[in-house]
Amino acid sequence: MRKNYFYLIIPLALFAISFASALALSSRGDFVLKQLASTLNVSSDAPPQKLSEEELVSMVKPAVVRIMVRAEVEASIPLFRVSFKDFTVKTVPNQKSIKISTPIDISGSGFVVNPDGYILTNAHVVSDMTIKKKILAPFILLAINYDLSSFSKEDAKNLEKKTEQEGLEFGKRILDYAVEESSFTFKTKKIVVLNPTSLGTTREKILNEGFTAEVVSVNDNFYKDDKDVAILKIAEKNLPSLRLGSGDKLSVGGQVYVFGFPSNAELNNNNLLESTFTKGLVNAFKNSQNTDFKIFQTDAKISTGSSGGPLFDTDGQVAGLVTFKTSSENQSNGDNFAFAVPAEIAKTVLSNSFIINDDGIYGAHLKAGLLLLRDKHCKDAITEFELAKSVNKKFGVARYVDPYIEKCNVLISSGLSIDSKWDEFMVKVRSLGMLAWALFAAGIFLVVILGIGITILLKRLKKDN
């Protein structure tokens, strides 16, 4: 009897030794075991994946808009003098004011923060103060040059002793004085958010096909406190929208992305509606003028027209609003930096205006579809992509979503889409590889041999008994 049990143990031992040896000899042993565990639905927690740059562009671009301001202004400007010796500014008595009438055109960027048509941009893009500054700038410069031309060497040395901050404060006083002493009549002023799907071939036609915007909130003191934020409203619904994140996650050396409409990227009128995507690093955090918050400095490329566009972190969150760039003088010296106010400033402005920041259905369904596509659940992904496309057609989301639908259709037609438990099982089995199949076949062969051996032994035992 002991001999018969010995015969029963031998095949079992051979099977165990053979299978263990095969796994030990295979450099993919661990991989095979993991794949088998996965096939048997033994899952592990994985951290959420970040959006790729391509996916981030698809998520953001439909919500980024171009803003055009056009005004016709009459102004009456008195003759005034400035003195850098005692930092004073005053009008020249018994002199007639200069009367002018001038057209003003301003271009900027913005982005939707609520699907009901609410748009964030910079205050300096839409503020009346910007227009007044543009009109007064040549007169202020003339007064400054007139004063400096009479400086002696001693006067120049005394001026050099003044701090940069003192110079900046005096510049603001000059501007405030000139604005207060002058008068402005806005014969017309129109703020337009360009229609992203306009087919206009001229600037005028594109402008006429845009959406008229009203100003909900604007900080006219942006040049004093750096809180360069404004809110616009257009009469459109169900728009692609972006959720504000936090600037606290940014760090020096971290990568950021900028979206906007830089004017120096325009080749012709056909490019007026195509926003630009650039990236760079956070170079520094600078104090605002009142030192109550930090301004981000980045080397991402921007130019006039980029103002008001969103600045994103690598998590795909709006971390700030692009607001201005280094001066032309600094750029000629090799400096080319952009600056952005943190998203927290914009959140406060929205809250004060009782506006809820909502990313709407576009972002939610597009992101859900992208995650499903990554896992090759293509039928469900297509459903999400179609829901994402159901937003306002004027904002042209189809060209960003359709490529992903096409990818899904290719996977479905090639049999690689995973839309059922059977599809999932077959894909995982196919992913095991030739070595795993060889091990699996060897195991099956050993099991068959083992079964035959056990059957024979059991018959012998029964016969002996």
TrEMBL record:
GO terms for molecular function: serine-type endopeptidase activity. GO terms for biological process: proteolysis. Coiled coil: none annotated. SUPFAM superfamilies: Trypsin-like serine proteases. The keyword Mitochondrion does not apply. The chain crosses the membrane at residues 434-458. Keywords: Membrane, Transmembrane, Transmembrane helix. This is Peptidase S1 and S6, chymotrypsin/Hap.
